Amino acid sequence: MKTFMTLLLTFTTLFSGLASQIDFILNPQKYNAITLDTSRVPTPVEEPETDDFVQLSQVRMHYRVYGKGKPPLVLIHGNGGSVNSLKEAASYLANDFTVYLPESRCHGQSSDPGEISYELMAKDIKEFIDAMGLKKPVVMGHSDGGINAITLASMYPDVPGAIISTGANSHPKTFKLYFPLGVAIKNLFAPDKLNDMMLTLPDFTPEYLGRITCPAYIVSGQFDIMWISDTVYIHENIKGSDMAIVSGASHSTYMSQDGKKAYVLATGWLKTIEG
Fold first, then answer.
1. Which residue segment(s) compose the domain that 120 sits in?
2. Residue whose C-alpha is closest to residue 75's, from 97, 51, 47
3. Sign of CA dihedral 112, 119, 54, 68
4. Model pLDDT, residue 64
5. Which helix (H) or strand (E) holds 55?
6. What is the pLDDT of residues 73-96, one digit of tens each?
7. What is the largest CA-CA distance in the chain?
8. Helix, strand, coil % over all residues of the chain, rounded to 5
9. For residue 163, what are the β-bridge partners?
10. Half-sphere exposure in the Cβ direction for 7 (13 Å, CA)
11. What is the CATH number of the domain that holds 60?
12. H-run or E-run covering 228
């Protein structure tokens, strides 16, 4: 019975995923399909103001700060990333924000306390925000960083002023099949707890997402590694959230691979909620 239910769930997810991809082509306005015009993006701030470490309860966290004297924005990289993954995005966003770019536990120069999960990383981010003395920062994350932004907002609803979650999935079953298959094969030859986490977590139920109270922007690419239907699911279960699908984009082409587009994405949405 368990095997049957697993197969049924897999088939249902695949069917709804394919249907959403086709529906997006036919009805892009339904999904708030957007393109990101980078023709008027300001000059990036090339060098960080700070490159340092802060001791949290379980982690010695490495971080950089780009810009100064402006509203705070915490920018969170994805699985296997580092401060370098989103440094281009940070350098452009520093025109409008003081950008805090932490490295997650078990990543980059941050320490490895031996275990990792999205909820542990959200706890670290909350402690980092407290340690930096930030009040209601915008929290923007890509991929696992997007999952961390959602997790933070659910676990600590009063901490973020707003979240921008890009390329996040609600559950491993919502990935397009090629992605978890590739991770699983890689894990056979080089076992890694970061891969284990992606293959087993997160599990965003409607109740979990329903605890988020801050403004939220849920974004993915048209050709992302998860189905568009999953982005819709996350959006529909966060009350008052906004959603966008970046036309023609893959998982990283509008974030870690293009800091200008990340800037346009963030500043464009934030202006709408400020107004």
1. 2-274
2. 97
3. positive
4. 98
5. strand 50-55
6. 999 999 999 999 999 999 999 999
7. 59
8. 40, 15, 40
9. 139, 216
10. 4
11. 3.40.50.1820
12. helix 228-237
Q: Which two tokens stand for residue 214?
A: 């801050």
As given in the structure block, the two tokens for residue 242 are 């906004």
| Residue linked to tokens 């980078």 | 38
Q: Which two tokens stand for residue 45?
A: 């701030």
Identify which of 133, 154, 268, 129 has the alpha carbon closest to the alpha carbon of residue 210. Answer: 154
> CA-based angle 176:7:154, to the nearest 5?
60
Rounded CA separation 150/240 (Å): 14
Q: Looking at residues 159-183, what average pLDDT do you find?
A: 97
Q: What is the pLDDT of residues 234-271, one digit of tens each?
A: 999 999 999 999 999 999 999 999 999 999 999 999 99
The C-alpha atoms of residue 147 and residue 229 are separated, in whole angstroms, by 16
Nearest partner of 31 among 273, 210, 234, judged by Cα: 234
Nearest to 33 by CA among 198, 202, 204, 223: 223
| Three-state SS at 239 | coil
Cis peptide before 180 (omega within 30 of 0): no
Q: Is 12 helix (H, G, I), strand (E, B) or coil?
A: helix
Q: Give me the residue label for tokens 């470490």.
A: 53
The pTM (predicted TM-score) of the whole model is 0.94
Mean of the pLDDT values across residues 36-40? 97
Domain count along the chain: 1
SS3 275: coil
Token pair in block for residue 70: 């402006």
Q: How many CA atoms lie within 13 A of 98 on its CB side?
A: 16
- Number of helices and strands in the chain (H, E): 9, 9
pLDDT at 2 over 60: no
CA distance 252 to 33: 17
